[in-house]
Amino acid sequence: MSLRSVLLCSIGVFGLLGCDSEPPPVDGGFDAGFEVDAGQPLTCSSVMQLTGLLDGSVTATFDTSMTLTRPRDLGLVCGNTDPELRWAPQEVIEFTVPGDPGSTYAVEFTTNQPGTDANFNTVVQVRDSCEIAPTSAFPPACFNDIARDEFRTNGSATVAGGSVLFFIVTGFSEPPAEQMTVDSGTVEVSFTVRGAEPPTITGGFFRLANDDSRIQLTGMDPNADVRGVGLNFYGPDGELLDIYGDGQATEDGDVYVVNFDSPAATGFDWTGGAWVRGAEVNLAAYLRGRRASQVRYRVFDAAWGISEPFDVTIDEATLVGIGETCDDENFCRPEMVCSSGACVPGTAIGQLCDRATDIVVPATPEMGATITQMGTTGGGMGLITVDAACVADPNGTIGAETVYKLDVAVDNFDLDLSTDNPGTGMTDTILYVRGECPDSGSVLACNDDAAPMNLQSTITLTDLTAGTYYVFVERYGGLMSGTVAHSLDVTVTPVVPMGGVCDPATTRCAAGTCTMGMCS
Fold it and tell me: Between 20 and 30 A from 106 (CA), which of 193, 275, 396, 485?
């Protein structure tokens, strides 16, 4: 799937054509590069004509399978296939919007009606010209599936009263076989018109937090139906970034569209926010790589009414840890969430840490000790992402984890950990230690392979103080199934001050050597 389709489908832009299957990167037909439709010149005098009813609905019913003329090229923004290939039949409705030309109105339409064949994968394109295909992607001009299992269509547009719109009603050409849908049939399409004012933006920010990006906006909206925001990004010299790599940067084409988190706070005064997670689309890495300096926001509502632009600087967030204050400038590190102004573990991470197995090592200030802890790790994906600097392949950071809680009462000690034992067998492990279980910023050490040809793991930490430490044994890769065993050696070596009692086999003198049971 193309980058444009990956972004639009993955971030939840509802109703856009292209999520059924992959559109080609370019239009390869004989009309490539032209906005005017392929085929014979259009004559719009014979199309179906409707006039909308303010605060009411009008309906049209027809059978697209009866259409014999060559279909129109819907354009690249509608995910079209090569116009030389077969196209689904189409019908055109010329729709006059009622109301005052000085006011804006929402035109909402749907083919999810009793008169539409349930297996007809309908597509609707909105135009302000019958002859010319839309070329901008924001707001959308093409609308497809209502949901993953509902292939009829909902859509909307916000325009001035008295406007004339052209609706091309068609089907998804050659729909995927697994959908068991068809590309033509009987359609009942309903149009509803209501008064609508676009939202406005009064404030906001855009901040990068590790691999994630945080969007936060406030504004006003008389219709209380704000849904999301379109973003343009600008480089270090103020140039608009060509985020889709087609060689042309345009404000209505190079738009990154994000739905606000649900439920968004709506009302006349609204607040909308969203996270773009790096695990899904690493927008943060892209923006850092392009040295992006500014973002332009345009908020949209349920009828694709678009606000005036609002520009903000792209900032780096301050990351804080467990129990620390979180707000609009201080974001919790990954695996934690902000709750009542403080960072707390996310639900799943909190449960993982609560299940940590206690390890007791019978060490004293004068004598160290070693224990062997047997354990298992499951298959599939884990919850914690290991720092990529720890592993040779970042794909190894997603395996299931087992957590051990180690309490040490010795004031000063060294800690040695190893899965390089017969009990681990052939399991490829990753080993790491944290001071706080749910806080990714408290990692003290991490090891993937003990040696170039040794897939087990070893860690040595020196001069630790008494307290609680969390040891993680992770299964590399995360793609295997089933449960595997591991054997973890844990050695606590007390560090003895000068003049203290020592054991040369199990302690280390902070200075000097252990002579006749004393550090000197």
Answer: 275
